Fold this sequence. Notes:
Blueprint: H1 20-33, E1 38-41, H2 44-58, E2 73-77, E3 80-84, E4 89-92, H3 93-100, H4 108-116, H5 128-134, H6 136-171, H7 175-178, H8 183-197, H9 210-216, E5 224-225, E6 235-239, H10 243-250, E7 258-259, H11 263-268, H12 284-295, E8 300-302, E9 309-311, H13 317-338, H14 342-365, H15 376-399, E10 402-408, E11 411-416
Helix pairs in contact: 4-6, 5-6, 6-14, 8-14, 10-13, 10-15, 13-14
Amino acid sequence: KGDEFEHDPEMYFIEKVDSEKEMIESFIKTVKENNIDIIIGYNSDVFDFPYLKDRAKIWGLDLDLGVDGSGVKFIRRGFNNAATFKGLLHVDLYLVMRRYMSLDRYTLERVYFEFFGEEKIDVPGDRIYEFWDNGGKELKNLFKYSLDDVVSTLKIAQETLPLNLELTRIVGQPFVDVTRMATGQQAEWYLVRKAYEVDEVVPNKPNMTMKNIKERGSNSGGYVKEPEIGLHENLVQFDFKSLYPTLIISKNISPDVLVKDNSSYNAKFEDFEDYETGYDEIDNLKEEEISSAIDDDEEYYISPEHFFKFKKEPQGFIPSALEDILNERFAVKNRMKATDDPILRKSLDVQQQALKRLANTMYGVYGFLRFRWYSFECAQSITAWGRQHIKKAMKEAEDYGFKAIYADTDGFYAKYVPEMKKE
């Protein structure tokens, strides 16, 4: 196939071979002769390399791309098998995009459009054989489609892999593994690394039975106020910067400083049992009484609604680790502001993005049942303090004439209503 394109300048990228066997051999030769360090694919763990391995086997070939001449090896990673080679990195961008983006579908065409706002050439998978068999213009379009797949994958990789390389440095795990890790796993490995640095004992993964899970119940999420229906004008947005990470640090929310015995405090707050129904259903006096009672303690931070206690001293392991992340990110952002070098600024921006991603993951993993530092009390306390903060901010905004029309977790939208303003 393709003889008619031998002198076509548009088809400069085509190499003609006599058989599928020769084509696979050419691919292996190209990788070896060019000392390729990294192979990037899209859904290559599940489709490309399993298919290539099967086709190579039919022709008596081995995908011996490893630096020691070894072939492809499939290792279990999460729900899939990862195609790996000794001394050669392989990244499947499909898995990266599934974690980093929220889309209706994750085809290469869809992801490419999301990044660059451009349509790429597309040939329906169930019609590829028709384009091949028909030859001529359709075959030429098939070749262009194949090239466009490669170019699109490379461009997406150039946008996303620097962040993963930086996470590799921070987390301390192999690059190939980091690209296939969920963000919660990345956070956990960062904490494992940090624990060894400060001689902290690393807990085993929890072994929760269904009975334990049902007894604990589910964690309450962030506060959400349903949006008021209608078209609104004169809107302002109120947003808490890094709300949950800040709460973890400021309230010292960590399993190692959690006081398990709450009996004395349960009695102390028995008059406020309906507090857990939320701010909207409680009169202002009781809200103030509860806040005052909680704030009076000099030894502990006491979470609203559930009254879990956290020692104020010493600083917990996770708040300490999280504070290190935020301090490092603050330092990196200051370096960004101070430099005029665009290349250095871009490199620093990747660093601060990686640190931000790690920090924002920390609060969520407290409620993950397989997290080494899993803590139902910590997870409940973070969101309870979060709800308290946003409700308090909404109430204070009303005093200045701003009526909240929609709220979600760490911020809210409000419109200015002059008659609500207090003198």
